[in-house]
Amino acid sequence: MILDGTLVAGEKLLPERLLAQKFNVSRPSLREAIQNLQAKGLIERKQGGGTFISQNISSNMTDPLLDLVANRPETQFDLLEFRHALEGMSAFYAALRGQQEDYAALANALERLSCLDTDKLSAGEIQEQEAKALAEFYLTMAKASHNMVLLHVMRTMKSMLIDNIKRNLEMLRESADVEVQIRQQRQDIVTAIINGDPLAARQASNEHLAFVEQTLLDINQRDVRVQRALRRIEVKENGKIAS
Fold first, then answer.
1. CA–CA separation, 106 vs 139, rounded Å?
2. Helix (H, G, I), strand (E, B), or coil: what is residue 119?
3. 13-40 as b/e, with b when 16 or more CB fall inside 10 Å?
4. pTM of structure
């Protein structure tokens, strides 16, 4: 239930008696299982308060090598390319296997993106909130795929995903037209999933990420040209001053 996302970080477990009945096991067997999960850092027990899914479950699942990769700026486009595979697969299998509750959760995750409370927040804080909401949207899509390995990989990459999205948003914010197109692209992904069209869902996901990637490349190239132009102006101005 932890692996497939039925139980989420911070959620309180049922009392031992009810859990033993639910899984049709003895109380001693249940306690042993809980102790094993606690030793792995997946659950935590609070004296007199019950047993909870660990708040740090995502960090407990994180490969330390991913943290090293995340700190190298040149890997941002590599991660964007890798997202083509992960999110395209999520969209494909969500459309193939998704249930009504998955569709509702996905639609709600998309709706939350447009209802973020951004009052009194700085631009950086707004991007942080949106990046976290987008990461939850993609995790919800992975959960709808009903592929536990895929969901686990997406969870493991959550911090990297948030960072990648945040960096992308910092650059994409420059164009209101781009924002409108991206919102429509996300809606197209959800629509294809709800319609049960795996090929259309994967294509919509790939087209969305390809658009983001190309837009970022265009912005980078433009910035390089601007920097070169500024350097040429600076050289000319310095030459005039010297003469």
1. 9
2. coil
3. beeeeebbeeeeeeeeebeeebeebeee
4. 0.71
